[in-house]
Structure formats: C-alpha cells, structure tokens
Design a protein that fits this description.
244 residues; alpha+beta; 8-stranded mixed β-sheet; 4-stranded antiparallel β-sheet; 14 strands; 25% helix; acyltransferase
C-alpha cells in the first residue's frame, strides 16, 4: 500500500538519506525518505504528506524508512473524540493563568533563552542543546509557510512555553515545543498538547499530529497517554493498540 494517496498536484522528487545511528534506539540504523517543502501549494503538500506519516523540519519533510525496523509509528489525536484523563485535567487546571497567543513564526531572543534552558535541562546531550541563536531562528522560520508560533505567558507576561505548529488542512501538526523546566508542578509538556487540542477544536480542525510514537524510547513513549490515539498502519489511520 502506498502511504501517499495520489492527490499531489505536481511531480514531487523524493530522496533517501544515507545510514546514520538511530537517535532513539541504541544499536539501530536510521534512514529517511525526504523532500523539500516549497512552492505555492506547500500547505496542501504538507497536509498530504502529514497524512502519510511525514514530519517537517525546516523546509524538509521526511519519514523514516529504516531497514528492518518499524519502531517509529506516526500518531495523531482525533480532536472530537479526545477526553483528557484525571492527571491531564490537573495539568490543565495548574495552568489556567496562562494566556495563549498565536503569531507568525519568527524567532526571538526571549524564545531562544527559554529554548536553551529547556534543552540543557531535558536534552543536554543532544545537538539541539548546542544550537546557536541563528540555528534557532532557522528552525522556527524556514519552511514555515503555513506555520504558527504559539506562545504561553503567565499573568506577569513571562514566557512559559512555546509551540511551533503547522496549520494543515485537516489539523495542527506539532513541529516542536519547549517550556520552562523550572516549574515541574505545572506539567507544561502535557499542558501544551492539551492546548493544541483546544486550539484545533477552536479552528474547526480534526486532528493534532504528534509525530512518531516509539514504544522503546522513553522520550517518545509518552504520546500513548493521549487516548484515544490513532496510528498510521498499512490499512490507513487506525486506533493505536498497545499490547499489555
């Protein structure tokens, strides 16, 4: 079964990357199928490819095509059917003081300072923790024709979290989010996803695309908490079934 439904309106060239060490599962090799996101129909292209399990980074959309491994499972939240559990409702209540503002995706020094604090606290051994201000600006602004940068601020105006999202024809795609690591009682990681579900509902969109769920990776396994969750299978998008 093809993962792309044939609705692309123009010839699109795809490429395959060389082998690299997998960043999520030790000892495995990663390869990606990718293409550039450009042209006047970039939003439609991004929508079609997101529905086919691709993700965006800068102006590249990609999907893992790793030999002998299918650990990366594309997942999305069906907005109309999503009901937060008790711990999620607590996270929502802990952040009722936060205001939400959607703006054009433009990187700022304030965002970058928060981004660095988040990276050094949560992912200190990653390449992203060593990104420069220019690198951060490129991440936010490149390939962002249909993107928005959502900021979350407290009553004092302090930036507590931010989420870069692609506004697709059928949903919001969570490209990258980061938050204040010094207030764990707020559960900001959970709250941001809940806020994206609410944002999608307000925009009349059906899904929130969360990227890849990787059961063997602690950094990615948390996504399974947001039930009901749909995963992309050989038979299309289906409810995610977790054994055990």
């Amino acid at each position: 079964m093809s993962v792309i439904d044939g609705t692309l309106g123009r010839l699109q060239h795809f490429y395959r990357s060389g082998p690299l060490p997998c960043p999520y599962i030790a000892g495995r090799v990663e390869r990606k199928l990718f293409t550039r996101l450009n042209g006047g129909d970039a939003r439609a292209l991004n929508t079609t490819l997101s529905q086919a399990g691709f993700r965006r980074s800068h102006d590249i959309v990609y999907r893992p095509v790793c030999p002998g491994c299918r650990a990366c499972v594309p997942v999305r939240i069906p907005v109309a059917r999503f009901v937060p559990g008790r711990s999620m409702r607590r996270a929502w209540a802990a952040n009722l003081d936060l205001g939400r503002r959607s703006a054009l995706p433009v990187g700022t020094d304030e965002q970058f300072a928060l981004f660095l604090r988040y990276q050094r606290h949560r992912h200190g051994d990653s390449d992203m923790a060593r990104m420069s201000r220019a690198d951060y600006g490129s991440m936010i602004e490149e390939g962002s024709g249909s993107a928005a940068l959502i900021e979350f601020r407290d009553a004092k105006g302090e930036l507590r979290a931010a989420a870069l999202v692609d506004v697709l024809e059928d949903g919001l795609s969570a490209v990258y989010s980061f938050y204040d690591p010094d207030v764990p009682q707020r559960s900001l990681g959970t709250y941001v996803i809940l806020a994206l579900v609410e944002e999608a509902r307000l925009r009349g969109l059906d899904h929130v695309y969360l990227g890849y769920w990787i059961e063997q990776s602690q950094k990615m396994a948390y996504k399974a908490r947001f039930q009901p969750l749909e995963s992309l299978t050989d038979n299309g998008w289906m409810p995610l079934e977790i054994e055990g």
